[in-house]
Design brief:
The chain is mostly helical. 58% of the residues lie in helices and 0% in strands. It has helices spanning 3-23, 34-47, 52-60, 63-67, 83-91, 97-104, 106-116, 118-123, 126-134, 141-148, 153-165, 180-186. The structure holds fe (ii) ion (2 copies).
């Protein structure tokens, strides 16, 4: 590894930690902060012995939620920030598709599970039930079949189940800093901090 790559890795880690510390204190209609929710989602994935790649996806799945500027509880205001797309876009120069796809699809996974498992919807938090309507409601059968054919489909669905679990008030977790080795392990060799010219269709649609 060259000095330049090492510096980029250091900056990426610092940027992620900064976002968690500075933007992770917001709540979004749940009983935990965004940082608590992210750390709990990763914690549950680890408790269920998931591969490290999925643990990292869980940790970063709401990165776009932390960084949108639409304020807290936006679903209650009828706004869907499309935070899943924003997050995958913000992370695309740093991590491979294996990490990005479950993040990009974690809202679609909720819509999928609502189609395939009638009991799933009843188990969602009130906030997630509310935002589901903004996100298009349960998938159609055609949408669900297409979703099952996506790369990393299994990981997408499993992330969503840990996402739904990670809303426990005052649950002890590891710190964001403890994930530094995991973040560095999956960082792309050519990771860059350059800002692309165009944003995705974010700030349209939510959790
Ligand atoms: Fe989440
Ligand atoms: Fe989310």
């Amino acid at each position: 590894m060259t000095d330049t790559q090492t510096t980029t890795a250091d900056l990426v880690v610092a940027q992620i930690f900064h976002v968690f510390r500075e933007r992770g204190q917001r709540h979004y209609g749940e009983s935990v902060s965004e940082q608590e929710h992210a750390l709990q989602t990763a914690e549950f994935a680890r408790q269920y012995s998931e591969p490290d790649a999925l643990v990292l996806s869980c940790l970063l799945h709401d990165y776009g939620h932390m960084l949108h500027d639409l304020g807290e509880n936006i679903a209650e205001q009828g706004v869907d920030a499309r935070h899943e797309e924003l997050g995958a876009w913000l992370l695309k120069d740093w991590f491979p598709e294996e990490i990005l796809q479950p993040i990009r699809q974690h809202v679609a996974s909720k819509r999928y599970l609502c189609r395939r498992n009638p009991q799933y919807h009843a188990g969602l938090s009130p906030s997630s039930q509310r935002s589901l309507q903004l996100q298009g409601g349960p998938m159609s059968d055609e949408e669900a079949i297409a979703f099952e054919a996506l790369p990393f489909f299994d990981q997408c669905v499993r992330l969503r189940l840990y996402d739904d679990m990670g809303k426990v008030p005052q649950m002890p977790t590891a710190t964001i800093e403890s994930y530094e080795p995991l973040i560095r392990r999956f960082l792309k060799p050519d990771a860059t901090l350059a800002t692309p010219d165009s944003e995705p269709a974010a700030h349209r649609t939510t959790a």
